[in-house]
Amino acid sequence: MKVLQINSVCKKGSTGKIAYELYKRGNEAGHEFAVCYGRGKKIEEERVFKFGLDLETVFHALMTRLTGYTGCFSPLSTGRLIDYIESFQPDIIHLHEPHAYFLNLKPFFEYLGEKKIPLVYTFHCEFAYTGKCGYSYDCDRFETGCGSCPRLAEYPKTAGPDHTASMHKAKKKLLERQNMLIVCPSRWLAERSKRSFLKGFDTRVIKNGIDTENTFYPRSKDEYAHLLKLHGIENEKIVLAVAPSFITDKRKGAEYVLRLARRMTGQNVRFILIGVDAEIEDKPENVIALGRTENQQELAEYYSMADCFVICSEMENLPTTCLEAVCCGTPVVGFDVGGTAETAPEPIGLFGPYGDMDALEKNLLTMLGRSPKQSEFVQFRQEYSSVRMFGEYSKIYKELLGGTDK
Q1: pTM (2 decimals)?
Q2: Level-2 CATH architecture, domain 221-383
């Protein structure tokens, strides 16, 4: 079986880790899996190909801002991807995120339609059925064709005219012609998708999977003692928050995490923020701000060291950070938005209304005082493992190939 994973990134970020895990598990199972990705560093591994051209990506982003259109300014990168598909001749194409300024949607989907290549399309956000938005939040215009977009200034942001209605129509025309099966990591997103023009497609729910064997598992205190010493932490409770572009990406909710930290000044609680990408004004004295890390083993040590993980995003699908925390034996508190609460049901998770600081603080104090037993996390390390995820996707691949295992 030959399967080509296509994503914006590889081996980094939530979707990049997922695509790479499927690639790795597929090859370990004796199949031929490949990954094509658009952005990031070049990875020197067999059948891993960066097709996106960095200068063209910058141009694409600039043109999106100026014109209001997206998904149509990367002809060279798109050609490189199609050439690779022609060379690799996959039985299945598994698409993750085709946005982020590196792919022209029209020629790509027209090519897939002409070649009749079976497509598994995993929705990691709502981009597939909206005019342009990664998340539509409380907007339901995607049900009727978009237009008059209230979030033009958000990713993929533009200062140009509102073309969301025409882009929505174009996506509908392209995707309705695909031999496609849709996968959503959360029940929330599957229900949203069924309200869109894609409601007639077979839609399955497969939860994201992570490496729970070699990376995200509970560490002993001896294994993270060097981090406690590094940060001068002795008898304090530790609250961890992790997000890429923590400060500059408003959706990730750094504002609420910092407000929570200020509320808890003097309560013997230390907040550690990982992914801080800008200076924090008036940083609370109980906050340790760290940059992004590509060291996944160290990240797992931070998760294990924490007494609680907090997530304050405005919207999420099935956030991988929550899965990583849970698999390292750390409970989660946050806002009940999108599929976030699906990651950590009680007693290992507590979630309240978005923006409700009183509920957030109460839930955090409850969780810090509760200290769930490690036995309560065991089933989730199985449920969120990449082995389980690969097994579920393998069944879909074989199903699309008529039940065969080439």
Answers
A1: 0.94
A2: 3-Layer(aba) Sandwich (3.40)
